[in-house]
Amino acid sequence: MTQLTLDDLRECMLLAVGYDESIDLEQDILDEPMGDLGFDSLAVMNVAREIEARYPVKVPDESLDETMATPRRTLEYINGLLEEGVAA
Amino acid sequence: MSTRALVTGLGIIAPNGVGAEAYWSATLAGKSGIDQISAFDPSGYSTTLAGSVEEFAAAEFVPGRLIVQTDRWTQFGLAATTMALRDAGVEAAGMPEYGVGVVTASSSGGNEFGQREIGRLWSQGPGAVGVYQSIAWFYAATTGQISIREKARGRCGVVVSEQAGGLDALGQARRVLREDGGVVVSGGTEAPLSPYALVCQIKSGRLSDARNPDECYLPFDRRARGHVPGEGGAILVVETAESARSRAANPYGEIAGYAATFDPRPGSGRPPALRRAIVQALADAGRAPEEVDVVFADAAGVPEQDRAEAEAITAVFGPRGVPVTAPKTMTGRLYAGGSALDAAAALLSIRDAVIPPTVGTAHLDPACDIDLVYGGPRDARVRTALVLARGAGGFNSAMVLTAP
């Protein structure tokens, strides 16, 4: 089944900020808060839209500060949604 | 009220040149930036000509994350701000935390961005609308993004008064300096050339439908038939004399006088208020009409508006009493960007002792008894310049700029 990998997420994150040179996602980012990685609340919403454009999933805008607080939380959350979608 | 407002930096994005010196040399050479619209196929529209900024590469000036968040008009503003601050030698990092303010003008906001997102809404649904639509269309977006990027945390604002906006923003910048001191980044930009924006303007009835770039925008000419739009504008660094002195800055000139008036409602029988703006701006500057060396005209390109402007000028200065010019004939009307660009051009006139030409216009409307500078630039000692701007809907603004 479809899964969001860390590399896929990196790509969605870079797309969401126009491949900005100041954004470095090559380090160990899994547990870094989105804000520390240079993603404010609108940028995180934009990441959610990029994920939706590529995966059969609808990401609610509510509580993104929790559901997508870090890349690890984001992967767990999105892959959970993808699994639910398959189950449904 | 004694605080002097000096202009110490210029950033220019114009259809006939990106960067102050590129714009100015093209303008003195009479090189126009008006041509067929190339961003989309304009053949289905009554207006097909415009002043497009072809040479602008946003990525040279604006980081990727801001390109995603902003309309072309804001990208012009960010780029022109970078140029202006560099020109002025202002390092935001070296300024007091609240020492730099931002006041810009916009008359139509983020057209291209908004059109794209509304297209997505109608074709793909609400989920396809990008999150940055929420901030990118809005008139204040350029001021806000400049403030964030340059860490300019002083007083900020935006003025919306169509073509008068650039002068109104500079007038507000002077007021901020009187109250807060320091530095203000000011001026205006516009990007009104998306299909949606063009349609909005065509509706005004003031656009030219000419197909020949040499005949599409002829203010004060017997053949005047409207104007063509253009994109771009100018950002100016304005600061108090104290601030300029402390940085050993080399000012272009001073915002010595400013006034804004509003026309009476149509049909009232009362005269338009442009003349009153001129008189009040001169009084504010403490200058007599005979001290003015050049007038940068609003130059609507619509016969009755041209005549009204010529009447206002001759009423104050006498028939052919002062050289009048309209370099915007080489860019089209840039709306909020237009009067800011005229202010920048007036300061360059003062610097180089030369009046840039009006192009296109060759057969002066006999009802316009003004000394129009056309056919080529005119050498002249310029110590005091008057810039006029009228915004659709009744806005009139006049600004007196003087040598430092």
TrEMBL record, chain A:
SUPFAM superfamilies named among the record's database cross-references: ACP-like
UniProt cross-references to Pfam families, sorted A to Z: PP-binding (PF00550)
Highest taxon in the source lineage: Bacteria
Signal peptide as annotated in the record: none
Keywords of the record: Phosphopantetheine, Phosphoprotein
Domain named Carrier: residues: 3-82
InterPro entries documented for this protein: ACP-like_sf, PP-bd_ACP, Ppantetheine_attach_site
Name of this chain's protein: Actinorhodin polyketide synthase
Species per Swiss-Prot/TrEMBL record: Streptosporangium pseudovulgare
Gene field: actI
TrEMBL record, chain B:
Pfam family, one: Ketoacyl-synt_C
InterPro entries xrefs: Beta-ketoacyl_synthase, Ketoacyl_synth_C, Ketoacyl_synth_N, PKS_Beta-ketoAc_synthase_dom, Thiolase-like
CDD domains on file: CLF
PROSITE patterns, A to Z: KS3_2
Tree of life domain: Bacteria
Residue ranges of every copy of the Ketosynthase family 3 (KS3) domain listed in the record: 2-403
Key words, A-Z: Acyltransferase, Transferase
Residues spanning the signal sequence: none
Family from the record: Belongs to the thiolase-like superfamily. Beta-ketoacyl-ACP synthases family.
Protein name: Actinorhodin polyketide beta-ketoacyl synthase
Source organism (scientific name): Streptosporangium pseudovulgare
